[in-house]
Amino acid sequence: MTLKVLFSAPPQQWSAFRAPLDRAFREAGLDTDLRYDHPPGEVDYIVYAPSGGLSDFTPFTRAKAVLSLWAGVESIVANPTLKIPLTRMVDSGLAEGMVEWVSGHVLRHHLGLDVHITRRDPRWNPVVPPLARHRRVGLLGLGALGSACARALAGLNFNVSGWSRRPRQVEGITCLHGEAGLAQILSHSEILVLLLPLTPTTENLLDERRLALLPRGAFILNPGRGALIDDEALIAALDSGQLAHATLDVFRTEPLPPEHPFWAHPRVTVTPHIASETRAETASQVVAENIRRAEAGEPLLFLVDRDAGY
Ligand code: NDP
Questions:
Q1: What is the CATH number of the domain that holds 55?
Q2: Using a 6 Å cutoff on CB, does residue 69 contact ligand 1?
């Protein structure tokens, strides 16, 4: 029987995803009818992006799973109308983009590139940057994206530690967990990268007290979610010199409002939620594989733990 797959995402994504999804479904041996306008009661699977506007899953009486195109699921995970399994996106293309963004911004701060890019006066001041092996980088979050970035940074010789909720093992990385692990990683991270999901437990994780644990003059990169950091505490830490710089890709309100102090702050770099994105070709294969699994009665990949919130 033909499976009816609803594409519930903004219209501009339909043109990017339609052909790759149809191709991936064919390659997975699935007989599917992919549309953005199936009547809810006839839908078997929902390919979903929060920006598509769907919030009431009640009319989808025969749907078997919601397959998120986004890695972050904070806006849907607690939806009381969602009673069927929810999967999140783990996509090699998404990870590849994140590794590039994080590596680029870590290298910017490690090498002090701003000094040379912005200087116009003819002052010869030959300060050689330290080797990466002497620079301590911490990653909060050692999941699909955090561990990919940790490996890439270790591959550049950085001294990398990572922090997760449960104990993890990533080759070449000092892995920490729990409250004691958090204090430890903060106390030695000269460059700190946030790749945590936003959950009730991680919201405002970096508050005044925890920012004070970082070495003085540390750099923060946040491509995770804006609400992981207390904005006011962050600005105070930048103003006092506790932090040298914050490079922020994600914000409590997006787009970041023009009057927000981050825009004008000399120690803040704003990037407009472009650290990475789900790539249609690779992500379509993940969606197709999960529908194949569901139809075969096999466990779904990247199932969201609704209690943990990610
Ligand atoms: P994963 O679910 O694979 O990894 C999440 C990591 O965070 C895991 O290591 C997890 O620990 C850890 N974690 C979760 N809660 C806690 C906690 N309370 N204490 C300590 N560690 C915790 O997610 P991804 O790596 O795929 O994605 C991470 C986030 O990146 C997304 O949720 C999203 O917000 C953001 N993102 C941003 C993008 C951008 O363009 N800016 C693009 C895509 C994603 P454990 O290993 O024990 O489960």
A1: 3.40.50.720
A2: no
pTM for this predicted structure: 0.98
Q: Tell me whether residue 237 is in a domain.
A: yes
Closest residue by Cα to atom 43, ligand 1, is: 71
Work out which ligand 1 atom sits closest to the CA atom of 88: 26
What confidence tens digit (pLDDT) does each residue in 213-260 have? Answer: 999 999 999 999 999 999 999 999 999 999 999 999 999 999 999 999
User: What's the pLDDT score for residue 119?
Assistant: 76
Domain extent at residue 50: 3-91+278-296
Pocket-testing residue among 92, 151, 164, ligand 1, by greatest number of atoms within 8 A of Cβ: 164
DSSP annotation string for 235-279: HHHHHHTSEEEEEES--SSSSPPTT-HHHH-TTEEE--S-S----
Q: Does residue 136 sit in the same domain as residue 236? A: yes
